[in-house]
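Purpose: get a first structural picture of the assembly so the mutagenesis plan has something to point at.
Setup: two entries, given in the order below. No constraints added.
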Amino acid sequence: MFKRSLVLSLLSVLICSCADFPRDQHGATNRIQQSGILIVGVSRESGNNTSQKDREAHLVEKVAARLGVRIEWRAGNAHQLLQDLEELKLPLVAATVPCDSPFADRIGLSKPYLKDETRNEEYCLAVAPGENRLLLLVDEIIAEEESRNQ
Amino acid sequence: MNTTAVNDHKTERKQFQIKDVLSTQSSLSQKTEDSSSKDELKAGFKKMYRLASWSLAYQIGATVLIGLTMGNSQAMKTEWIENALAIIPILGVMLTYNTENKQPEKSHPFGHHRTGTIAFLAVAFALAGVGTYLFYDSLINLIYREYPSIGGITLFGYTFWHGWLMIGVMAFTAVPPILFARAKIPVAKLIHDKPLYACADMNRANWITNGAGVIGLGLVAYGFWWGDSLAALLISLDIMRDGYGNVVKSLSDVMDRHPVDLETGQQQQIVDEVRRVLRALPFVADERTLIREHGRYLFAEIFIEPNDRMPPAVIATRQVREAVIPLDWRLQHVAVEFTDELNNSAAVLTREQLEIEPERR
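Result (structure tokens, whole complex):
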């Protein structure tokens, strides 16, 4: 009896702790929740597919809703936005970033939210490097949307 | 020594030299007279091949598994390369087993026992090189503070942190190598299989690197970015240890070092035993014995200065062989020379002694 309760309590501690982890390396999620604002970089460039931009916006709105915060869009040049992301000046960028971007090693890329078969390209949302909790949340939302669309 | 002396020594060699070399099969049949040890060896070889096959299958499986789950983690990448490299020594074990029975031929009169040594040397250099590169890579990651980004993975419709899967794979792949090492070491010692011992040695320390990987990824989950690179650094140190250790061992092998114990690296007793047995023969006044390893086998060159009681050379040679060969089943090739100039016959000459050393300015 004692053994079983010990195992159960250990398991519950493990499960609870799993829910708290992974943590962000620089606490992006906590900061967003404390400030109530999710700052998101969006690319200013014209010529990008609007339906793709809508899809990104939809995903970002879902992320914000899950965190219980409002979004502040920050438009800019895609390259500059990714650089800001790398320098931890921004937590999230939705700028139709291809998953094989040269920035891939230096930032956190989500799982692909769109596969463009004609161009043979996959697109990802970009998260500040090491902010694994935020990245996991973005991935969870993309996975949920994927299963909803199927 | 002058040139004439060297020439004299060569003529003497021709006169006194009786080299009696038996073929692999016939000499092996003489060696292990008691059938129990022969059976033990047979079982050892069988077990070795089975162990090598299982560990090859495991190692390929582990490499694929880690490759599929490694994601963005430096520690996982390093562990993946370590596992992929560990396949090669196992192939070396199998290569040795399959080539050492090949009959000597005109172009390779000493047989093919050293195939394993060559494979082993290549692996050792690969391990040392790749280990050093990975050490550098992980160090750069630490210095430039590269934050590992590890997101979610969706399996069976459930999305969870990829790091948990990595930790699971690291923990899972920590166990089999310990079991393999335990099984391999006694077999490697029994049949004196150096590549197999090297595999076991690599396996033996593997759980430490896996443990480092688990802790490193755990630290990343906790919010400490350096955990991943630090774990990778430790894993790369282990690869380097394997690499440089084996480079030294296999180079010594190529350099015809005296036979050494697999575990301690100390000279094996067989060298002293051969000399003791030789000195006990009634017709031996003095001797010089050179023994080297060819793969798992021992090749001996015995130089004997006989006394007055020297029987005819053929009989004396037979007596030497009968005394020496039963000492160890690995003694496969024994060459005997009777000489009255022991130091000349057994000498390994330098350029100075051959008088071909150019004068230094």
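Residues 13 and 23 of chain A are 17 Å apart (CA to CA).
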